[in-house]
Amino acid sequence: MECEIHGGLDDIKTQTQLSIPEGKIKVHGEFKSKNEIEIAFDPKINVIDLNLGKVLKNPAIGTIAFKMKASGEGKTMNDLNAKLASQFSKLELNGYDF
User: Fold this and answer.
1) What percent of the chain clears pLDDT 90, i.e. is strictly above it?
2) Single pTM value for the model
């Protein structure tokens, strides 16, 4: 695991990479708490050829690869407006690649 974290509890940025034999996950993210009355987040996740079936010990699931971007803000965790976009380049399930 490689990780860089900058900032404090109310404004934090990270670049993290987890490399395991089953694949790789990269996270670039940001979290802000503005004046303790509003929160905001903006992560980008890149999963690179992760053998999810091996991790979960489920042979029906194969390798996955995708990119995901999310962003959101709100006053509380229950009051968030968020956007999520993902793009799968590999999704193996029951021997098929979708």
Assistant:
1) 84
2) 0.84
